[in-house]
Amino acid sequence: MSWRARTVAIWVTALAVVFLGGSAVEQWIPGTRLDVATQALTPPAGRVTVEVRNAGGVSGAARGATERLRSIGYDVVRFGNDDSFGLDSSVVLDRVGAGETAAAVARALGITRVETEPDSTLFVDVTVRLGATWSVPGTADEDVNRPGWLARLLERY
Description:
Elements: H1 3-28, E1 49-54, H2 61-72, E2 75-81, E3 91-94, H3 99-109, E4 114-116, E5 126-130, H4 149-155
Parallel strand pairs: 1-2, 1-5, 3-4
Antiparallel strand pairs: 3-5
């Protein structure tokens, strides 16, 4: 093997080690990636019935919130579109006078606004009205579920 071929082989090997090492650091060292969407939240103590309404008009919002709540342990009995769209910020409505339960649902969805509007005809403990600005926690601006830099690079080729 010539001197030039050996030099090229050394550089290629060194670059491969750097790329693979960087990928390993990014993906395997605790604290370098934060997947908020799958962080364990405290499940409800008993059965908590929830309805999720898409009031912002964003496609798939109610389904995303439903999946998030069900994965934690909430019983989402209904989800779908609200009677009207146009709500910008989301709100969680306490329907049975259990403010802490509604607050826990709000925390699970990253919603800060909780109000009490009792309505025994709905047969649910909590109603979630998702506004246009809501997205599943951990997937909005932070984009924490995005693949590592090496995976993004390899996706191009």
